[in-house]
Amino acid sequence: MNHLPVTLYVTYHGDPQSRFDRDYYVSEHLPLVMKAWHQHGLLSAIAFFPAVRQAGTLAICECRFRDEKTMESALSSPEMPEVMADVARFTDITPARARAIDL
Asked: pTM for the full model?
């Protein structure tokens, strides 16, 4: 198993009319993610938003984990349903995930 740090990117794609509450995402959802997954090896979670709302990527979250094993632990944890249930509170967009191994 790879012991290099792993970054999980969670992206939200839509258009300017798509519902995405940036304030809730930053003040409520990201702290929930940190609380739920820190014990599984999440080191940080940060959000990025385009300067102008337009069709395409509306938000990106970068979650950095100690390694692949800790990321998999978080994604299969008992806390995962709570994290996913919270998504409906800030958006109607289905998030997409991609992972990257830090070299």
From this structure: 0.90
